[in-house]
Amino acid sequence: MQFTTFVALALAASVHGAPVHKRIAQVISDSTTKWEAACDAASGGAQCNQVAVASFSTLLAAPGPCEQQNAADNMVDLAKTLSSNADMIKFAQIFAQQPRNSPTSLSVPYCQSAPRNAELNGLYQCQFQGDNPTTFVGSITVGGNGTIPFGMSAPVSPAGSCPANPSGPIADGSQLVDLTQNPGVSGTTASNDTTSGSNGTPTVATPSATPSSDSSDSDCGEDPSEPVPTASLAMAASSPAAASATPSSTSGNFKLANGQNAQKLNAQFSTLTVTSPCTEGTNACVNSAFAQCVGGSYVTQSCGSGLICAALPLVNSAGTSITCTTNADALARISATGAQGGLTG
After folding, report:
1. What is the count of structural domains for the chain?
2. Which residues form a coiled coil (predicted)?
């Protein structure tokens, strides 16, 4: 009896002491909704959605530690072409501090370089409450490379806090912009540097961690006059499934080929699960959610209420894109190419 009790207690202690890793995520498209609305109100046109989509995708787990800051710089760059719109700059400052997804419930490393725009000086992302405050992605303990924000000499205190939320980390999955309208910095209009051309148009770049291919593209690269879903997760299609759907024609009737290749991708996506083998950084749709391969398996991101993830045909060039849209829109776009058989052919 004593032996049985000892074994039971030892087993309980072992289970209790085992590290529990969970993925901490969010609806990333919500992070730029207010910025995009301010941009639209400032007559930013098609660039608003393009910059918003490129920006919120940097909150996924795969992009590098400075991609979010670079995206916030692009948001500020565009604001400055629109009479330095104060709301756009404010929401860009808050976006720069939004927590990023963590695939293993570890804190996410901080960028180690200065932003281009002085409006972003001293800003760094908060962490989610479920993130381990003492260990960062890569099993790096506090004090190691990337665990202290650029320009600081001591760890963040309280751990997980940021200028917009100095009391500590925020609730898992929540949006900082819904919790505060104060970015925690005084206003400034100076710039550290610029990547704008002579006409002042900001450079819009998708995350470097997002692979691309000749046969697929994102909605961000299409003709700005074409409709882009408001909450689209426009990412380059680069999964093994996507690679097998290379357009059969790059000239002539590429629209039909695009529609048929989108159907092939959607049919292949319907067979995938989160445990399907994949190549690091590639994208797909899994169970109607946008998915990115992290650590050899798919990490999914909900598209939001009423939306599904689907491969869609490009309109002005050969190729396909992976995006979140409505089922009706996906069907209409594929049907418009002349392809028959719905989403999967």
Report:
1. 2
2. none
